[in-house]
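This section describes the prediction task in plain terms. A model, or a person checking by hand, is given the sequence of a single protein chain and must write out its three-dimensional structure as a string of tokens. No templates, partner chains or ligands are provided. The sample shown here is typical of the held-out split.
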Amino acid sequence: MISIILLGCTLSESGVDAEQDVRISDYVPLDDGRAWTYRDDALGDSEGLPEDTELVLAHVVDGGVDLRRGSRWADALPLGWMVWDVGSGLVLEGFSFEELEEVEPHRFAQESPLVDSETNDGDWQCSTERLSEFETWYGKYEHILQISCSGSDVLSGQWFFAKNIGLIRMQGEAFDLDLVAPW
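The expected answer:
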């Protein structure tokens, strides 16, 4: 009995949540004012410092994510938007990025995405897996959820979320954004 209690303490001290304790809302923080800066790898070289025209700024306003292209929010050009709902899982209610647009809701993950790792809605399918770490141009992150989706010309691809940080990479045929700064 004592060894079981000690084993339980050791696992919780490792910092890795048990599958049933992983909540999608911990990986998609949508507090007003939260911001991220991405490099648009579809436009250029992904090795060197990004040019201003390769930067995509994301800012949460009233629960939606406003996207702009440029290095400063004040004079960056409008680029698109994303509206996420994390009330009962992860649902992308709408998405616009340059010429791409998807206004129908798409479920990416369940509320406990590792307990119920598959979502299916007609042709739209997503699966979630946990990665111990993932590296972007900016840095290396731990506690990652990788969501792989198919069935949409616009949204199909790989979406990576870091715990308490948010979306760190989205990669599909029509887009390739890589986090360069979590502000």
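For orientation: The first helix runs from residue 2 to 13.
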